């Protein structure tokens, strides 16, 4: 984890939430056992648990065999993680009981919707329970259509929801980025990196849960062609927000710093900090 923080610090990130994607319960327990030590690393604010309560219809690069309902054992391990720092858990709202959202919030997590096929009504209901975020807007979620607004429509419409967006020019078309910026504004839209382990290295491949992930033209893909996170630094995300979205530098920096800090319940007192989710 020290290496993750050090690699991203070179590219403008002062604070981060290392991510654990959907995996076996014993892997969550290993993070729980290490959380108290990891949170002492300068730059680690908390953790991002992406799964396992996701939609198999929107699994992305997550392995279907690991996706499933949160068990009591999962929740016990997550409770230990939630005590340390300011952490996020990504869920598919349609795949959990509303009481689970309550429980996760009581543990100290910010709850975010991602890898989800939820309807707009299901997203609004989760927001009524306290869910406050959307994980990588537009990607791995139900889209805005004429009769069903989906997760995207609900996210753009509901001012209670903060939304992280991948601004690498690969995951989301610039037109969609500009629409999101107009709908959400810099105080609700957050720049994320969704960065994988190759940042700061000359390597072109790595292993993810037994699969070879390959980097080509700044695009990370699994053997079946599925996008596997991003090869993006925060400073490049800021540059892209200016170049692709047409934001002012102040607006882009707000999306990279103050807005995610506000989402996490932090008071920066005017100081800019940047955040990455992996």
Automatic annotation (TrEMBL):
The GO biological-process annotations, alphabetized, read as: N-acetylglucosamine catabolic process
> What sequence ranges are listed for the domain Amidohydrolase-related?
10-267
InterPro entries given for it? Answer: Amidohydro-rel, Metal_Hydrolase
User: Signal peptide: which range, if any?
Assistant: none
- Species annotation: Bradyrhizobium shewense
Q: Which family does it belong to?
A: Belongs to the metallo-dependent hydrolases superfamily. NagA family.
Would you say which domain of life the source belongs to? Answer: Bacteria
Keywords from UniProt, A to Z, are: Hydrolase
Q: What is this protein called?
A: N-acetylglucosamine-6-phosphate deacetylase
A molecular function annotated in GO for this UniProt entry is: N-acetylglucosamine-6-phosphate deacetylase activity
State one Pfam family annotation.
Amidohydro_1
Give the source lineage, highest ranks first: Bacteria, Pseudomonadati, Pseudomonadota, Alphaproteobacteria, Hyphomicrobiales
């Amino acid at each position: 984890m020290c290496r993750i923080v050090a690699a991203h610090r070179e590219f403008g990130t002062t604070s981060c939430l290392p991510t654990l994607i959907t995996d076996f319960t014993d892997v969550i327990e290993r993070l729980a056992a290490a959380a108290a030590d990891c949170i002492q690393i300068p730059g680690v604010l908390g953790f991002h648990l992406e799964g396992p309560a996701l939609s198999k219809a929107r699994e992305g690069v997550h392995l279907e065999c690991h996706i499933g309902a949160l068990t009591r054992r999962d929740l016990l391990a997550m409770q230990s993680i939630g005590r340390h720092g300011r952490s996020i858990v990504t869920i598919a709202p349609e795949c959990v009981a509303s009481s689970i959202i309550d429980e996760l919030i009581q543990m100290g997590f910010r709850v975010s919707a991602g890898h989800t096929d939820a309807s707009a009504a299901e997203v609004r209901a989760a927001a009524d329970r306290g869910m406050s975020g959307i994980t990588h807007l537009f990607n791995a979620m139900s889209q805005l259509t004429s009769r069903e607004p989906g997760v995207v429509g609900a996210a753009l419409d509901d001012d209670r929801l903060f939304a992280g967006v991948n601004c690498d020019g690969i995951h989301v078309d610039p037109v969609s980025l500009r629409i999101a910026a107009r709908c959400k504004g810099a105080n609700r839209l957050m720049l994320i990196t969704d960065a994988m382990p190759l940042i700061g290295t000359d390597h072109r491949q790595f292993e993810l849960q037994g699969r070879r992930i390959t980097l080509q033209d700044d695009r990370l893909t699994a053997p079946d062609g599925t996008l596997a996170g991003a090869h993006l630094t925060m400073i490049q995300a800021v540059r892209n927000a200016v170049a692709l979205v047409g934001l002012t530098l102040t607006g882009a920096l707000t999306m990279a710093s103050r807005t995610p800090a506000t989402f996490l319940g932090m008071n920066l007192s005017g100081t800019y900090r940047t955040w990455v989710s992996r």
